[in-house]
Amino acid sequence: MSHVSDALSQTTAPFGYSYLQFLDTSVAAEICMELFSPIQIHPQLALNGVEVFMNASGSVHVLGKMQSRLGAITSAMSARGGVYMYINHLGCDGGRAYYDGCSCIVVNGDVVGQGLEFSLKDVDLVVVQVDQDKVSSLRACNSSFREQASCKVKVSTIFVPYKLCTSFNLKKSVSSPTKVRD
Fold it and tell me: What pTM, to 2 d.p., does this model score?
């Protein structure tokens, strides 16, 4: 046996996707092309109660791709509700590929934060304050979402006994939809 299996007292591990259930919210991650694949995973995750989605991407620049990317994210979140954090590489890989950045945060279909596109900065951090009750409210008002959630395919959950969210910083207001740069 290996050191890992000895330490965990297990010799197998589940395969596939799951989500993290914190004490106050649930978070799931997609990778790159799962946002654009024919059978996407975020609908099932949303029906299982996931509120926050993350996508760490390595998407190279192609003319018109930003509009396609934002369209896919805003459409998905306006239909199902949720907070979607899309993170993309920024800069050149040393060869011929250029990553255009343009990370964004979308809440219920509205872009509330957008990073730089074509920046020479090493790091571009997008910070917003989100009211997660807006996700619950949107889902509660959608009768077809509630009906489909009642007969969903169960996705495995990893419980994390930790609070991820903090109380509102009343000195800073909840982030509002912004004008999308294109």
Answer: 0.84
